[in-house]
């Protein structure tokens, strides 16, 4: 017997206990152990088999260490068929999570019992594939087609009580999974319950699968795996036999396995897990953070405070007046009300946070005891430096002083203090209590334990934290500035903002760049452009004025009801603002530009290549340590389509030589903007790709 599955005999019941911590992943040793256990139980004359997991969970899914490697026998589909075909009574007792292959093993069992806290799901679409061990064939037979389609195409986790109603689980009972499983198996034997193989159940009734396919494809913004999974469920209804339905599932599974989208999603999966693992922090202990301060209670400051409060940290929020402080508290209360409505916190937690954890203040002295303070005031260097000079005067020794600046030089901010080693950038993304990305900006003199503290805080807040170096805009906003400039150039040359937005949402972005600008506030970009002009633009740089004209007229996007789009209260989204095209036409005329047409493919290619080129410069300069850091920033902070893996994974899949050829060709029309990144040229010359650099950094 395999050590990963322990065998025990209790009367007529053979007990197979998975023991593969931490999550009983269905690696090859577990699969072999389950097969050997079934065969032994049959040979020894047992009447029933109980399968359960030791530790904190039933089988939580596949073993990620096997991803990308040749599969080893027994394969999971064959194992599930063998479990189901056993003449013995097969019972699974579920606790923790039964996800992916875990739920497929449970569905291969003849009966299923679960503790109330258990969750089940088939999340394979999030990795660009579909359930490949019978999940698309068995789940519709027990839960019905509509419920199965919902679970499979969304990948959502379903609680035990809902799973019971759907028929996925037969019984929910509190207690130890081994004990309730044994009692249930004995109860079934005593009642003479028949062996009940899901694969032998009648095919479920079909639905309008063509309509469902189109709806799922549209909802996924081009992601293929949920829509392809619809076709696999369709086979459960329409295939002449269960075996033929399984064959169709396998065929569709293999199609997705070969797709670029699967490669992109697997890359995103591993990149998210690798991004916080930095050699420089190995063995470095973070400073203890029991209480934090937040300076500024606007949208961003209130969001940061909310995120800290939800993470269990007491917060002292500093504003300049009592009125502003109470307005900040109202914003936080609104954020918490949303968390309460979504079931993230209880009413008791909600009330305790507002009454006990949150303290309002109007004087810097109130921050004298905090362990970490985050400044979220107006994006102006002089204002930031004044704040940090005050913090330097009142904060205790060892307190971490953090700035939430989006673009400004953290080294210059740190120089306003006598303790630059304690200063770090913590760049949250708005709304800060919702967005998962946190850029941790390491200044020249920031010491490692302060960096470790930033990562520990991000972990406590359930953020995806990425290390960034100091430059204008760090990783994300620096790259954003470049691809946004590329979009502006295409507008001057003949594309409309609305065509560009549509082309990019069709590509898979959550929003196009002009709709994003409206959402963020056009005044933000306006302020950045004015600052850069004041610092002096390179005379070779192309500039435009049409967006400035909108701002000068007081049109800042959604918050004023008008920007590139016009917005009506109570309606989602906006309609193109016709004034914009007139402003663009005037800008073109002033610059003597004759507009031309752009295809959607050309728009996407230029936009993406500009993004990749700037990202290569960011990695080459060490602002981002690895290409995967860039990918994670764009995935979690900028609406990049996850199924494409991030811009540098997209570039690898497209081929770096072709991208470099495009940059060199376009440099003939603008050799200032289209300057190839030295790292990109180096990789092409060496026949390497960005992912090679990720592997080098492991």
Automatic annotation (TrEMBL):
<feature type="domain" description="3-hydroxyacyl-CoA dehydrogenase C-terminal">
    <location>
        <begin position="473"/>
        <end position="567"/>
    </location>
</feature>
<dbReference type="GO" id="GO:0016853">
    <property type="term" value="F:isomerase activity"/>
</dbReference>
<dbReference type="GO" id="GO:0006635">
    <property type="term" value="P:fatty acid beta-oxidation"/>
</dbReference>
<dbReference type="Pfam" id="PF00378">
    <property type="entry name" value="ECH_1"/>
</dbReference>
<protein>
    <submittedName>
        <fullName>Fatty acid oxidation complex subunit alpha</fullName>
    </submittedName>
</protein>
<dbReference type="GO" id="GO:0003857">
    <property type="term" value="F:(3S)-3-hydroxyacyl-CoA dehydrogenase (NAD+) activity"/>
</dbReference>
<comment type="pathway">
    <text>Lipid metabolism; fatty acid beta-oxidation.</text>
</comment>
<feature type="domain" description="3-hydroxyacyl-CoA dehydrogenase C-terminal">
    <location>
        <begin position="603"/>
        <end position="688"/>
    </location>
</feature>
<keyword id="KW-0413">Isomerase</keyword>
<keyword id="KW-0560">Oxidoreductase</keyword>
<keyword id="KW-0276">Fatty acid metabolism</keyword>
<dbReference type="InterPro" id="IPR006108">
    <property type="entry name" value="3HC_DH_C"/>
</dbReference>
<dbReference type="GO" id="GO:0004300">
    <property type="term" value="F:enoyl-CoA hydratase activity"/>
</dbReference>
<keyword id="KW-0520">NAD</keyword>
<keyword id="KW-0576">Peroxisome</keyword>
<dbReference type="InterPro" id="IPR006176">
    <property type="entry name" value="3-OHacyl-CoA_DH_NAD-bd"/>
</dbReference>
<dbReference type="InterPro" id="IPR018376">
    <property type="entry name" value="Enoyl-CoA_hyd/isom_CS"/>
</dbReference>
<dbReference type="InterPro" id="IPR001753">
    <property type="entry name" value="Enoyl-CoA_hydra/iso"/>
</dbReference>
<keyword id="KW-0456">Lyase</keyword>
<dbReference type="InterPro" id="IPR036291">
    <property type="entry name" value="NAD(P)-bd_dom_sf"/>
</dbReference>
<keyword id="KW-0442">Lipid degradation</keyword>
<keyword id="KW-0511">Multifunctional enzyme</keyword>
<feature type="domain" description="3-hydroxyacyl-CoA dehydrogenase NAD binding">
    <location>
        <begin position="291"/>
        <end position="468"/>
    </location>
</feature>
<comment type="similarity">
    <text>In the N-terminal section; belongs to the enoyl-CoA hydratase/isomerase family.</text>
</comment>
<dbReference type="Pfam" id="PF00725">
    <property type="entry name" value="3HCDH"/>
</dbReference>
<comment type="similarity">
    <text>Belongs to the enoyl-CoA hydratase/isomerase family.</text>
</comment>
<keyword id="KW-0443">Lipid metabolism</keyword>
<dbReference type="InterPro" id="IPR008927">
    <property type="entry name" value="6-PGluconate_DH-like_C_sf"/>
</dbReference>
<dbReference type="Pfam" id="PF02737">
    <property type="entry name" value="3HCDH_N"/>
</dbReference>
<dbReference type="GO" id="GO:0070403">
    <property type="term" value="F:NAD+ binding"/>
</dbReference>
<dbReference type="InterPro" id="IPR029045">
    <property type="entry name" value="ClpP/crotonase-like_dom_sf"/>
</dbReference>
């Amino acid at each position: 017997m395999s050590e990963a599955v322990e065998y025990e005999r209790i009367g007529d019941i053979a007990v197979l206990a998975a023991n593969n911590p931490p999550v009983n992943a269905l690696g090859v040793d577990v699969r072999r152990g389950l097969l050997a256990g079934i065969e032994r139980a049959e040979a020894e004359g047992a009447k029933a088999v109980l399968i359960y997991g030791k530790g904190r969970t039933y089988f939580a899914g596949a073993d990620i260490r096997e991803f990308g490697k040749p599969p080893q026998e027994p394969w999971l589909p064959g194992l599930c068929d063998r479990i189901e075909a056993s003449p013995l009574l097969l019972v699974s007792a579920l606790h923790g999570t039964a996800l992916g292959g875990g739920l497929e093993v449970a569905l291969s069992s003849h009966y299923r019992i679960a503790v109330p806290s258990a969750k089940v799901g088939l999340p394979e679409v999030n990795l660009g594939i579909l359930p490949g061990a019978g999940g698309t064939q068995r789940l519709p037979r027990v839960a019905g087609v509509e419920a199965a389609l919902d679970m499979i195409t969304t990948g959502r986790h379903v609680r035990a009580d809902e799973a019971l109603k759907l028929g996925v689980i037969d019984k929910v009972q509190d207690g130890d999974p081994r004990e309730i499983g044994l009692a249930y198996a004995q109860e079934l034997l005593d009642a003479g319950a028949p062996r009940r193989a899901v694969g032998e159940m009648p095919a479920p009734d079909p639905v309008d699968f063509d309509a469902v396919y189109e709806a799922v494809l549209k909802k996924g913004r081009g992601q293929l795996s949920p829509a392809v999974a619809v076709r696999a469920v369709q086979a459960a209804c329409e295939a002449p036999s269960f075996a033929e339905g399984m064959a169709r599932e396998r065929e569709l599974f293999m199609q997705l396995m070969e797709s670029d989208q699967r490669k992109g999603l697997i890359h995103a999966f591993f990149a998210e897990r690798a991004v916080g693992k930095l050699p420089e922090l190995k063995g470095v202990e973070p400073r203890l953070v029991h209480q934090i301060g937040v300076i500024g209670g606007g949208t961003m400051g209130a969001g940061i405070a909310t995120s800290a409060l939800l993470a269990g940290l007491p917060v002292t929020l500093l504003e300049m007046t009592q009125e502003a402080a109470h307005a900040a508290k109202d914003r936080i209360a609104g954020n918490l009300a949303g968390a309460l409505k979504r079931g993230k916190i209880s009413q008791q937690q909600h009330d305790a946070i507002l009454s006990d954890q949150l303290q309002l203040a109007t004087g810097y002295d109130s921050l004298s005891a905090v362990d970490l303070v985050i400044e979220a005031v107006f994006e102006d260097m002089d204002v930031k430096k004044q704040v940090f000079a005050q913090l330097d005067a009142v904060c205790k020794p060892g307190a971490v002083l953090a700035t939430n600046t989006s673009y400004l030089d953290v080294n210059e901010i740190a120089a306003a203090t006598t303790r630059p080693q304690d200063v770090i950038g913590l760049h949250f993304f708005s709304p800060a209590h919702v967005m998962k990305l946190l850029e941790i900006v390491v200044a020249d003199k920031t010491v490692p334990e302060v960096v470790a503290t930033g990562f520990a805080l991000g972990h406590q807040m359930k953020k995806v934290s990425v290390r960034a170096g100091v430059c204008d805009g760090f990783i994300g906003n620096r790259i954003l500035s470049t691809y946004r400039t590329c979009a502006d150039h295409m507008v001057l040359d003949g594309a409309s903002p609305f065509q560009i937005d549509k082309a990019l949402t069709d590509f898979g972005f959550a929003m196009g760049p002009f709709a994003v600008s409206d959402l963020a506030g056009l005044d933000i970009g306006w302020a950045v452009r004015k600052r850069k002009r004041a610092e002096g633009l390179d005379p070779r740089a192309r500039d435009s004025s049409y967006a400035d004209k909108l701002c000068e007229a007081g049109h800042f996007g959604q918050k004023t009801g008008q920007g590139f789009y016009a917005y009506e209260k109570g309606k989602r989204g906006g309609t193109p603002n016709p004034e914009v095209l007139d402003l663009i036409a005037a800008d073109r005329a002033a610059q003597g530009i004759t507009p031309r047409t752009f295809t959607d493919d050309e728009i996407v290619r230029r936009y993406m290549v500009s993004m990749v080129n700037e990202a290569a410069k960011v990695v080459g300069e060490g602002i981002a340590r690895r290409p995967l850091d860039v990918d994670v920033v764009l995935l979690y902070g900028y609406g990049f389509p996850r199924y494409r893996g991030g811009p540098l994974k997209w570039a690898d899949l497209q081929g770096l030589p072709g991208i470099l050829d495009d940059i060199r060709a376009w440099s003939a029309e603008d050799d200032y903007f289209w300057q190839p990144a030295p790292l990109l040229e180096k990789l092409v010359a060496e026949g390497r790709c960005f992912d090679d650099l990720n592997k080098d950094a492991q």
